[in-house]
Automatic annotation (TrEMBL):
Keywords: Repeat, TPR repeat. It comes from the Bacteria. The keyword Repeat applies. PANTHER family: LIPOPOLYSACCHARIDE ASSEMBLY PROTEIN B, TPR REPEAT-CONTAINING PROTEIN PA4667. This is Tetratricopeptide repeat protein. InterPro entries: CellSynth/LPSAsmb/PSIAsmb, PDZ_sf, TPR-like_helical_dom_sf, TPR_rpt. Gene3D superfamilies: 2.30.42.10, Tetratricopeptide repeat domain (1.25.40.10). It comes from Kolteria novifilia. TPR repeats lie at residues 305-338. SMART domains: TPR (SM00028).
Amino acid sequence: MTNCLRTSLVLLSVAGLPSVARLDESSETDAREEAFQRIESLSGKRYLEGGQEAEWKRLVTRMVQRDPRDPRALYWQADWHDRHEQIDEATRIWHSMVDDPTRANSTFASRAAARLASLELAEGDAAGAVDWARKAVAWNPHNVEALQTLLDASLRLGGLEEMATTIAASARGSKPDELAIPAMYGELLVRLGRWDDVSRWLDEQERVAEREPIALHLRASLAEMRGRPQEAFALHFLASEMGPAQLPFVQRSYDIVGKLVNGANVSENDHSWPYLVWLASAPETAGQAIAGLKAFEPSTPAEKLVRQHLLARSHERLGQVDEATSAWNRALELRPNYVPALVALQNIHESQGNREQATKLGDQAHRIAPESRIVRQHDALGVELEAVPDGVRIHALAKESPFYQAGLRPGMVLTELDREPLGELEPSRRFQVVRTFGGGRFRALDTKGKPITGEIDYLFPEYQPPR
């Protein structure tokens, strides 16, 4: 080969490669995006350990230093000040974001305007809150915080009909992860007493599986208004089990259920739903729950579904897999898209080594409601399990899993989660405990059989118990 030809080939091959500068720029962009994702993750936690606090401040400071005009970096800097009750500094940064035309008209400028609106409302200036919230919605019609502030301010100032028009427009284009907006619209229709519109709205939501929890929550509110507490509780229970964790209406249903269950009248003659849920929550009382659930036949569809759910959970706690499977299948007969039943049956099949059927059920649940709390939790754990005498062995584990981030690795054996000894449970119940574990303390055996302990981050900070 001649030197000329060799030189031409080398030049040709080099011309097809990105420059070192371009590679460095790409790596820098990737690192920056990864840092912002980490900041967003930390900001969603209700509680941060000392190391996480320091990490958040370090990341935000570094991002602002690299580009002082980046609205994301500025927003998280303000958020950090706000979290530490440095309101004046947070407010100054939010104002700088919305006043600068080069940074305005962006998602994070919309967030900043929404925070200013919330601040104005908290200080009693409803008119000022409306001004900021409308600016936020103009930049991002699906800004949930801004829409909620607009609604709250409108309740003080009047103008709910105009507010209904604004929220209706936002609801029409909302994405699956923005379900708070149609939920807000439904509640507003109830406040306005537009009952024909409420009926049509409920029908529309129930035709879309991922929106069904919204309808359940609103039907629960209507049942409360009509003096039907048992039906209202059942509907709140289903909304909290089926809905996306991050939505305010799901959290309200979750809080209502928790408050009523914790305050249940513990009496042998009490067949209320809160008491039956309380009985079904522990192996020691699961037998009483089964007896109570079999003693009556509910009249409403929601109550019938809750009855099968609690029967299944009670049988699981007693290690009665066949009975639990039958109850979950009956739940699916009542509501074929009932995601908690699909995920529970997925766990049962996985514990029995039937991975093909488990995968099929998991895929079905994911298609129906990818944003539901139980599906997201199942996905986020990123773990494959195997039952062993001491608990469950981790067969495979994704690096993104909170289990991996807590120091667990494939080959280790989980022996206890949140003080519940896994080795004492029937295998399918062990899988169910692991799959529904939201976060907290764990005990395990490492690959050499040495005991270890640790803490797993809460998947859904809004459900994290207070310390």
